[in-house]
Design brief:
With about 775 residues, this protein is mostly beta strands. The protein has six domains: about 160 residues, Immunoglobulin-like (Sandwich); about 100 residues, Immunoglobulins (Immunoglobulin-like); about 100 residues, Immunoglobulins (Immunoglobulin-like, Sandwich); about 100 residues, Immunoglobulin-like; about 100 residues, Immunoglobulins (Immunoglobulin-like), CATH 2.60.40; about 100 residues, Sandwich (Immunoglobulin-like). It is about 5% helix and about 45% strand. Strand 29 and strand 30 form a beta hairpin. The longest helix is centred in the last third of the chain and has 12 residues.
Amino acid sequence: MKRYLLLLPILLMILTIQSQAAVISAKASPLLLPGLVEIGQPFTVDIYMNNNDGTEHLGYSMPFVFYSPQGITTVTHRDVGGLGPFNSITMSPSFLSYWSVLNQWTGFNFDGNLGDTINHTAVSISGWPFGLGEQKNIQFALQINQEGIFCIDSCSIPNQVPPGKFDWLFDFSTTFNGPYCWEIGVMPEDPEISVAPGSFLFEGTAGQSAPSAQLLHITNTGVGTLNWTAAWNSSWVGMSPAFGTAPSNVQVFVNTIGLGAGNYYDTITVSDPNATNNPVLIPIHLILSEPPATIDLSQTFFSFNAIVDSANPSDQYLTVDNIGGGTLNWTATKSKSWLTLTPSSGVDYGVITLSVDITGLSYGFYYDTVVVSAPGATNTPQKAAVRLQVASSLPILGLNPGYMFVAVDSDTPVPETRYFEVYNGGAGAMNFYLEENSPRIASLTPDSGAVPQLVAITFDSVYCGFSMSYTDTIWAYSLEAPNSPQMLILDYHCYSDPAKIIVSKDTINAALYECGQGMNPPPPPFFTVYNGGSVPFTFDLSWNSDWLIPSDTSALAPKIITLSFDYKNMLPGVYYDTIVISAYNAVNTPESLTLTLTIKETDIAPLIYLNRNNLSFYAQENRVGRQFFVTLNNVHPGCMDWYIQEDMPWMDFGIDVKDEEQEEAYPWNLRLMPNGYGMTFGYYKDTALIVSDSASNSPYPLVLDISIWKFYGDADWNGSLNILDIAYLIKYLYKGGLEPKPMKSVGDCNCDLLVNLIDITILIDYIYHDGQPICGNPY
């Protein structure tokens, strides 16, 4: 006997009755076996309906299509004195009585030549009652005289005005869950092999763990017993078990050890000599991709030194290599004209020559950055800093500062000792000597010698009348420096109650853990700068380290200064600095305090923390949605390395930072950007994993879902615009109904950020009056 498909019906999705859902399904009668209708004999396709919505349906549009995926071209619609084009449709009397306003059967090519399409549109005042249970409400009388597969399914009927007029439309979510299919034939006698799925695709990365095993279902869709065996050719394919009696669930797996990147093919042969379709072949395809490329730089800092108008410094070299897989197509860029990179691009391994041209550069420091980028690399871009120092070929005499304000207390008119530096801003050796001619200066110590040198100015008494002021000049000379002499100007001002710096602390001891402080960080240390006089002053702070970050670097006294620290790259140990508080018009400037920072190790394992671990997003097809931020932290103090493991084409992950130096800052601010590009209408859910090799609760799940919608105005979120959306908005605005789905703004049809009667009017005009496309919609 010729067989076409499964003897079991392709009743692939028999709908289970649930609360708050209308259920519609199809059954055929009579059957020789489950799913088998006898050829050449009358039978019926019965539509069973169960209104479980908890409300009466006042109307619906329900289209069906009869078709054959194999073997059948015609069907006989038997005249039983009923309804429809052939009088072949009957409705139960009670169901028929509900539809007093409209009960219309409309055929489309409904002539017995498959496919045949028919629509039932019904409207009622009282409605289709709920709570009656499953009932056989509609029956199609048929006969088929050809072997093959015969199916019924719900459908849409295109090219109607308005669009969707004869679509499947119900007030509440009501699905048919078709297709419902039956084989048309005679009683079988032998077993038949059925497998699902019909092919396998495994995808992985060469050198990494093998793809997960997949499940193969082997069933007997004939009669008798199916004793099957499986065979294959390649050593990288495996099955467990490899033989059995149907029905069987079989694990199919692949072993990728020793396999390079590429495509691998084999075929699993499932056989039983007694089966009518022996053997059944199952293609298997394994795709192993290259591991991603990773950029490696030989060094990340270059320092060049040269003398003005002299030879260029020697070239230096940066090695670029691929320490990952695949191919690394890299490019190197820089921004300054004095730096040249040769070559500026390459594949995998390469050596870049860094050349410096100092032509036209005066003495000083110059900076640039070499940026190496490669599309697809795991760590693109990578950077190497470049510093060029161009020095003078001769000594350059320098003074720091070149101007000094000296506040004098008229009650004690001898100013406190001040200091300035004499230094060489050029090249070579240099000596200096100082000269001054002022009754207010007692001494300069030292007043000559080799540079660099810190010189102390000791003062005599300054005569202070009312608002008196004086100016003195100290001259610095050098026989070696072409810019000699240089001068330091002293500007004296007398006050009866001058500004005076008072610092609340003379030492600060701070202690932090390396990398991060966890969820309970210690309070930041602080000190206060007060004014001990009546003349206001603004102070400046200076320090030496690059890890200290004061809350203010300049402020009007009094002021509280809070200290924070850039400790992310600091190793455990003890670090020191001195904070200098200067105010040009204070009598005791500068003052200072010592700072000790201890970076401690921790022996507590990291513990991953997210402030949100379950988020919902929304986006229109081919547009981005609203971004959201999640805080990621280590609950405990100390270091925690982590990465995100995910496979979500609809979500872009990033770290929200102001600059690249903050990418490793604790806590991290994860930026989640929903992306509807390439996505189609529907609901998607997945889990991203925060993975840390050292955290005790790794991997930590971040559950995300996204609702992709297509049209503004699609208030019931079914992917189309029709009468149900109008009804939905009316219920929302005037009957206390739910907001438009999946988000309220979907109901905004004119882009005014509101949902009101105007949106309903626009929606009606578009559907029924050939109105313009709704604002924000693709068409």
